Amino acid sequence: MSASSFFAATCPFCHKFIEVASESQQIALQLMCLDLARGAEWPQGSGQHIDAGRWKQLLMLSWFRAHGIEDGQVYPSLDGIGFDIAYRRPERLPKIHMSELLAFADAWCAEHDVVRSKSRRERAAEPF
Fold this sequence. Notes:
42% of the residues lie in helices and 12% in strands. The chain is α+β, with helices and mostly antiparallel strands. It has a single domain (21-124), classed as NinB (NinB fold), CATH 1.10.3790. A hairpin with a 6-residue loop joins β1 (7-10) and β2 (17-19). 16% of the residues are buried.
């Protein structure tokens, strides 16, 4: 375990401690979202760009759905104007799930020709 990792609560199923996402994983996800904010239109072809925080939400919610995790929930907003989506924060994800989320996001970027700020070799050298 790296110095930047820590254990969260115990798993509700097996009661073992769960190592949460490392600092390097969180940074890698943030960098990827910044690349998306700079280089990807959303919705595609609209000419519009969204910020890195919104990309992080979209990636996480899409990854949750792809893995059958019903984590993102839509609720009426507290002020009564529209709806809000509540979901788990990425830094609270188990380390193994964060690795999968990063691979999922990297594949999405590759499929949609998003230019990354680092080469594949530099990203591959990052500890996940």
